[in-house]
User: Fold these one by one.
Assistant:
Number 1:
Amino acid sequence: MKSIYPTLYSLIISFIVLIISNIIAFILLQEYFINESKNHLNKNLYHYMNLIQIYHENPIKNQNLTDFLNNQNNIIFNNEYEFLFIQKKSVPVFLLNLPLKIEFFQNYLKQAPTIQVITINKKKFYIKYLYYKEYEILGGFEVSSINSKIISLLSSINILIFILILLITIMTYYISKYQLEIPFKNLFIIDEKIKQILIKLIHRQKINKEELTIEEKKFPPLIQHMLKRYINILVIFSNTANIFTRYTNEIFSYNQKEDVYKKLHFSLNELIPILHISILELNFSTNRFEKIYEYSELNIHINNEQCLPEQCIAYRTNQIQVLTENHKEAHCCFSNQILFNHSLKNKILFVIPILSISKITGIGLLIFNKDDIINLYSEQFLTFEQITEILKNHLQIYFNIAGIISHNISILESYKTMAITDPLTNLYNRRYIIETLNTLLYISERNKGELAILMIDIDNFKNFNDEYGHQIGDEVLKIVAKVLKQSIRKSDIVGRFGGEEFIIILPNTNQKYAFKVAEKVRKNIENIHYKNFGLENIPKITISIGISIFPLHGYSYDHLLRKADEALYQAKKSGKNRTMVALTSPSMSISTNISD
């Protein structure tokens, strides 16, 4: 029922237009017919006057003026509302179609050959009076007769126009109905397809554009454009949602920062091919950026040592910076490095702050091809500025999640470090040393290798604490721990075993090399200049070292530790500040028990 309303509205509007046009036509036609009637009246009155003159000059026998005029067929008036009256000295001579008696006119006659408007019995007449010798000629027409002509003409035209409008309206209704039926059917098909897409979105299934193909010829260009736009948005949303879901499901399982950002890279690359990506996190202790991850197809390598946090607007303002080929200077020293060495022609660079729990922990640099971004979001439906804003929001979400995971990994690493390290010296603690030693002994036995243990004790440290205090003693322990760590290989393990006692594990090391390392460590401790560490008037600190070798001195960690401790006791007993190797002991079976 509602579908017929537009047709009715158009019909009503057509009638309104018709009425207005009739009023205008009536006014114009009335003026036209009055002028035509005046011309007709002038012509006939003067013609009668000429006929009378002809009759007087050449009278016809046996025929009076009335008969003569009646025989002039070419001047007889066909309009019943027009009148003609001729008289001779007030004696009527000729009368034709006179609607009113002549007495009504005589009081209004004027001696002037002009057309006058008079009113008789509330009727308006156009009349003209002429006289010739003894004859007077009076002619005229009623205004209402003109209006009747116009109304009759307009009525005929209106009937034709009405019939034409009605036919056009009926034809328009059926044509519109026929033209809209197919598009509406297609709309129902599209509605069903959209439902299927929503179901796929719920189940996180990928959607292809082919699933939403429609017969474009059935729709006008504007609707085609709108449908394509919505289809494109649905497909983009579907694919980005699926990628994002996989990204969030997998990224939380990683426990290495590099793996987290590698997953970030691969997930974003599914959306838009990435030409370059650099991830830099801030080391708050040094206030410097550290490179965590980098990949580049453009041979770009970021130097993280050349930029401070305060030099990066993206970091300071927590706002993504977008740079194109039109930018000569960037807002970050990292992006400046890129602009200095490479062109961004047909490319776009994003500098993205990495946010973790309301704290900015780093920045990311991404470079895309401009065309790849436009192809993803379809610039025919969105402006490039709108596309950039959408992409900025996507990137920020991805980087924020990666930042949170990375921050959690840092926290876990710090907790793990606290669990296995000594809080004063930052060396491994006793428990970690024993666990690691047990593992290394198993590996050494399987590989038929050797392993050395150095048990170290600071000489006379109890007396030192009594004289200088525990605060100075703690500072000395920190310095000794630092020198111990600097004196060994990266593969070696050093830890605090308790109090002023330290231990060093040397994998794949025989007795000769172990003694050499022990002497190097002893001399380095002996030669420490405490003034360099801010401590004045500190006496020389020395250490004693006991060495045990696997499998020479035992097979289990407890036997090896006991042998190293015995050797340390002999070094103390022999005068301190020296290195002693344990005596050989009989073979023992490997013990895997871990005890503190």
Number 2:
Amino acid sequence: MLLFGLTQPITPIQIHWGNMVSSVVLAMALAFEGQEPGLIERLPRRSVEQTLSRFVLWRVGFVSLLFFAGIVGMFTLAEARGATLEEARTIAVNTLVVMEIFYLFSVRFLNGSSLMVQAILGIRSVLIAIAAVTVLQFGFTYTPFMEAFFDTRPVGLADGLMVLAVGPVPIGILEAEKRVPHRHAGAKAAVAEWTRAGGWRRSGTTRRPGRRGRHCAPGPSSAIAQRMTRPFLDNRRAKRLFLDRHLLLRPGSGPGRGADLDGVLDALGFVQVDSVNTLARAHDLILWSRRGRYRPRALETLVARRRSAFEHWTHDAAVIPMAFYPMWRLKFARDEARMRARWPAARREGWHGEIDNVLRHIADHGPACSRDVGGDETRGASGWWDWHPSKTALEFLWRSGRLAVCHRRGFRKFYDLTERVIPAEQRARSRDDDEIVDWAMSEALRRLGFGTSGELAAFFEIATRDEAKTWCAAALSEGRIIEAEIGMADGSRRRSFTTEALLDEAATLPDPTARVRLLSPFDPALRDRARAERLFGFHYRIEIFVPEAKRRYGYYVFPVLQGERVIGRIDARRADDALAVAAFWPESGVRTGKARRSGLMSELDRVARLVGVQGVGFSEGWLRA
């Protein structure tokens, strides 16, 4: 500006203030940041490569130009509107600081998008730094002491809003710049050179370190190299692996009963039991979606007659393969300790004193339901949800393993002594706590395909979160599992644990069946709502407890899957002798063309046969935009 004889928009001492605020307060917040997804995969700068690469020079120049345009533009505009020199300079300094705040979000992710919730919210240090800068900047602009020292003036509301409006402009431009191909050319060239040198061997969709003893080009130490070559599983393959583990990728052709149903239950790990029956109960719909010939009586047979499955809890009430029963001993003990600690305050008084009475009643008279115990107790009008003391004792004994569900009548559970329900061979098997945790984590990984320690722990809800972290660290060091980067629906990557075998499997999976599938809201593929949203980009919440006027969709709507994509959700229920479809909401970007509508109609016809109705009826305007 001085070279051209123009007025400086910011004085030297004001520049010093801006540098102190941005370099000290804002920049220090980055020291507490976690790494950007995929950062550790990037190759190190080669020794012959210049520090000031063409990309770095371009980035410095481009950002400088953006800031120059914003600051000078606001300064010039303020003067044109009649502001004094001091007022115009104050506006220019505030523009600089606001642009620095927004630039902080962009610079946190060099290559990945910063326009995501997790990127915008950042971590606590970033938000604290922004709050601190905001306070300092208000002081700089409005306190008499600062005004005298820095020669500033108060900024009016209209000018302040203009400053805030200009601030986000650079981040929008820089986000667009991240997509320019030139910025990735150098990285691709380096990858190609490293690969030709033998640093990586390729298999399917993964990248893995070269074999021990194999000649490799000079590079970083083996530990760093292993981190840098963490396998990557793209989102399409990740979804296929996950769906295949849940028996949803390929057509299911079994009879859906007997040994075949045992196999389905074992593959899934469990099926959640739920009471809502607007169309079909959750467990029946889950199993039917894998085996079209399945009918509800088949699961009752497994639990009540063949005794090849039992009922208990994972994250919720579930039917579980009987072979897993010995592993539930740890859950029995932990549930009992939790109930003893919490239920005295959460349940009606007197339940603990009813434990022996309930046990004696069942021992003497056989299986009982909640109606059969505590006949002289005061009961509420709600019936189903009335936890009178004897019912609470009944549930306590079941959750702690001393009783077992022997059968259901309707949806009502009947309990008996465990030794009368659980086969002796399963009761005789014992495992110590470490063995049970190892089993729970290993089996969860086998069924999920990949997952964080928290996701693996949440699968059976046997291992604690701390036990899960310890197990993952040990299994990783022993080479039983590996770390991989899993592609998410929004383009980000999530570091997860998996195995070489699972990654090899993902690379060879077939294309998914084109069948349209109506899924239970409690389907194991969608039960973990956060995981489903990350992997499929599908946000789902049950609105049963939402007031009708505030529901976005309906009381109980069903996710609809086609191939490897969740294409929408449907409000369907039994009504007299028909299947009534109130609405189908396709997901954003999903076209409901003739072929897709035909597939949906075929699925509804199949559901009608499952629930025993004669046809399908549609409300007017059922196909929503």
Number 3:
Amino acid sequence: MPSQRISIIGTAGAGKTVFIAALDFACSFKAENVYPRIIAQDMKTRLYTAKIMDDLEDGKWPSSTAQSVKHELTWVWQDKNEDNHTIRLSDCAGQDFRDIFEATDESELSEAQRALKTEFFKSNIILLLINLQPAFDIYKKPGTGLARMDIEVAPARAIRDFQKKGITVYAVFTQSDRYAGRVQREWNDSYENALKAILPQLYHTLVETGTQFAVVHSVETEEQIGKDGTTTFVPKKKIHKANLSQIVAAVTATLEQVKQKEREKKEAEERARREREAAERRRNEIAEATRLAKIAEVKRRERNRIIMRIVIFVLILLCIFLAWKIVGEDIRNVITEESRRREQQRLEIEAARAEILRDLTQAKEPKSFVLDASGAVKMDVLPVPAGNFQMGSDTGAYDEKPVHRVEITKAFYLGKTEVTQAQWKAVMGNNSSNFNVDINGDNLPVRNVSWNDAVEFCKKLTDQKHTDGTLPLEWRFALPTEAQWEYACRAGTTGDYAGTGNLDDMGWYNGNSANTTHPVAQRQPNSWGFYDMHGNGWEWCADLYADDYYARSPATDPSGPRSGGERVARGGSWTTSAATCRSAYRVGCGATIRFNVLGFRVVCVRNGT
């Protein structure tokens, strides 16, 4: 990737106006050896570009601009610019631009779109050029011309995508002179007020993300048709120099920061290399000295061990002989009886311990925990053996990739169903759901539960079961890790849905729920006996959420990234589509968020797991 790379992107409606603004901006960086590479959007823009070149050759272009762009423009038009320091203007149609930044799956894009998006994300700086003409048209006559998705929503989302990748974004709104009067009449010559009115979502995105922006004027042209039928575009007046001083200064400062960071990175890498080499030499010296010392120590210990064994063996023989002679049969009887008593005591202790842990470690039937005094409310947990599986999906969203092998090294127990409203009330003393509480409300999954609420439930349940003696002290209740959840959900399958593979058999979603939640265990379980892993309600997991975690997660018992602002939720709900109920689908939510589709199920594990 070049050390300094600026990409200039023209959004929907970009044409001659955007072309001139991009060219003007590129000329501002001539002293920095930065040249534009211009890709015209349509035939009009190509003809206009050709007209500019002819005027340059004939000396008709304003002299201040001609001296700075003549050579570069000619070079660009012949497509010979191979310099690493480039500015790229990619004027793509509005639908293409929207598709690029709306797609959640790279396979939805064409090969050209994927290549263009890849080029964008190699940049240090993005200059986003937005033509105000279609925005004015939409504002004056809603429903005409380009859609608001093309001119406002897609650019706003693109800005957030770029900044998420660490790319600095600047926005330049281009405006031909004939539309300037509208600004003067309706918004007292204030472009900021105009942007608030005609592009509110894009304006607020700029403010929230701290993106610098400017509005510039450009030349207005008229068509002329020659005798031979050739169409050309002639400027009505001299080009108006774009007022880009603030943006140019900001871009210059950003480029200098990039240079400085690269210098610092190279210096740090060189220091680290020297330190690694020095450390490696020290380690080798220490390792060699340690190896020789160990060899000598092993020989000495082996010699002493042999001598000690001989001495001990002789002493034992002597003691046995003396004991036999002096004490005789009585001592032998006492020793035998004491050994027998200690062995019996050890066996009794082991049997008692095995009795305590038998239900959790060896039970073939589900383990039921009584949650209320009457014994009416119970919670079943089923055993999940250790094993391995393929986690993620090659056909899902980007945060489900890549598919990778995960090993679960310790067996655990998982709730047979989601935690119900009756179970929640038995442990917490209240019902947080306030949703569909009817005659069957006790068997509905609990809802409106935040991640913090679910963790508190697990702590209280653990304390209760430790107190009444039904849960050994070395076991506890918790939220499952994301890997434990998907391992139990798949139950040995590799498709999108476990069990029969048919979502209508396995769970409730917006295609069969009649727009309401349902009591637990009404659909078929998967092959390991777990109900409602697909649909009915989202289920909290213990892990923090990161969309790129699968690219770096450990292969053994992964427990999520170390930092993040959200927690993982799995399984989909009665309100969501079939795609969100897949075994591999994952989302992130804030730990304090409560929704009427958010619940959880518990896992029972040994401490330290």
Number 4:
Amino acid sequence: MAADVPPVRRLLIATPHAWHLPHPVNEHVADLADGLLALREAGIDAPLPVVIAPLAVASARRAARSALRDLARGASSEEVLAAPELHAPAAGDRQAADAAHDWPLVALPQPVGPASVGLRAALRVLLTSADVDLVHVHDPLHNDLVRFVTRTWAGLTVATFHGTPVTAGAGVPPVRERVVDGIDRWLVGSAGARATLDALLGERGVPAHLVPTSAVATRIQGGGTGPVLVVGRADGDDAVVRDLVRDLAPLLEERPELSVTILARWGTHHRVPVPRALRGRIQSIEAPTREQADAVLAGAGAFLALPGAHPRGLEEARAARVPIVVVDDGDDVARDPAALRARIGDALGASVGELAVDLPDAAALATAHIAEYAAVRDRIHVHIAPPAASAKNCVIDLHMHTSHSWDCATDPAALLHVAREVGLTAVAVTDHNEISGALACAELAEEYGIQVIVGEEVMTAQGEVIGLFLNERIEPGLTWHETIERIHAQDGLVYVPHPFDRLHTIPDVNLLRDTLDEIDAFETYNARLPFDQYNRDAERFARKYNLVEGAGSDAHVVQGLGTAAVHMPAWDDKESFLVALGQGEILKRPKSLLYLQGLKWVNDLTGRSKKLPPEAVGRER
């Protein structure tokens, strides 16, 4: 299916972390973008990276605003984004005076709370004018910049969760739910990040695929031979480092040639008080860029990773061929200073040649990610090119109910009469967990001159799904997969109604993605939904995966018939129906939802609608 999908033209990579401040996620983004360009230079098909990130440097922000204005005025994205003034500085470079990379960085303001109107407008311009085929967001729940990109972008979205704590706004369930639903593939760099993501999302867990998050191939020589013990700091570890200085004092007394460098790679830390006797032998250094870290590691004889240290720091030490001592919270040496000193002493005597260094370079990192991009693009449906449209037209409402539904009082004959009066030429009758009403309509179809598709809206264990062109009733309560199998066993079509109506029981978005190949059509407009955002979410999902779109009134009273329909070529059987539906145009003729729902409530109160069946309790529509 993916063979006919064109290769990615441009990849937009979004990071929520300020580019001018040290952060391991931004270094990962830089590695990935460098690797993509390296693959392209080697003649390998790879997307062109464009990175967006908050940046406080005024000159970079001015260059970004100028580029966005040019894009909005219709300038070529190839020319605009190739401008040298957009070339990215090194991640963590507070001055950002010089370009360090050959790919563009679009500098954006740092959102404080909700993204401003100006920031949202800038992102819309970039997403619609830069020939973007795929978006890769990092830490998508972190702030409103990446959350807005995820909610707004209508195409495929890959997200990497690095385990970075989210801001308070992302904890609001509706915000988190819409962001999560907009992500087509989740990536994590470690089992720990996966566990954190599962804990964050709770019941709405998502499949997460393990990929590398660092590309720190060996770039320096001399590591592992110096007389320096480098200590990698973690966030909020001031008390731990103070205790460490005390515990290392005997080792420094025994080995006068040894010194200790306490390395802060990301973030600012307090300097640790050093006893008078050890002054000059213990120093604290901040190394916000990889080049500065390389200079420190070049003279290291061992690297000590404290609890909570970022994994990237360990990988940089491995790449520099420095022996590593890892201290975990549950490790015995964390409570035994003598054992810790002994382990450090062993590491300082280790041979560089004995170290196993097997880390990806930037090209290998990019290759791993291209495989993930291809996996998500494989889900896009590729339809057979339709024949020329028929000269005859069909106007069909794909979702409605009769008195054979427990919550509807519409007589089949009245339904067909009103359908003809409002201009419909075909209907799909989709009663709740029943096809007797559809069969009754089919018997009257010729009399009223209306094509009737026999359907059923089945309540599965994971949400509702409609079967079209059915011959037999499908019992409710089966799993989503079992119900789809029953529909296809009758040679029917699977039509997913109101898939994002979050006020009712609907299939999880991951379940929809897992069964994309089983879905024949997707309802992107339902006239009964109280919030149009639900329809827009369905439309976005369908167009992302190139699903055939449909529309239905979901009418429970005759006054609602035809409030949603599809204008499409005429058809004779289910195969020609599906081809014709793929050429259709959705018609929206909404009426007051309060009026239609009021009529339904009157039927319920007067007893014209029937008693709630057991399988529908708690799922009233």
